[in-house]
Specification:
mainly alpha; 52% helix
């Protein structure tokens, strides 16, 4: 257990759950999605294919660590004798 754990009451967590649900409802209404219950938005993530919601790799490419890993894999394939 963490030594400096903050004591937060149920109202705190209820507030943030409501805040997250409202944000996701606003996004879904913008996209034209129809959802029967609001509680569906309490779990998981909402993604659309717009440039703001899509994964960063689509926009910015792979991170440096992934590029180095890909380069090393390709180098190993070139060094391998068939």
């Amino acid at each position: 257990m963490k030594p400096n754990r903050k004591k937060r009451n149920q109202a705190y967590f209820r507030h943030h759950r409501k805040r997250v649900i409202q944000r996701k409802k606003r996004l879904s209404a913008h996209r034209g999605w129809v959802v029967k219950f609001d509680g569906v938005f309490s779990k998981g993530k909402i993604h659309c294919s717009c440039w703001m919601c899509s994964a960063k790799t689509k926009r910015l490419g792979y991170p440096k660590s992934e590029l180095s890993r890909i380069a090393s894999c390709q180098e190993q394939l070139l060094d391998y004798d068939f």
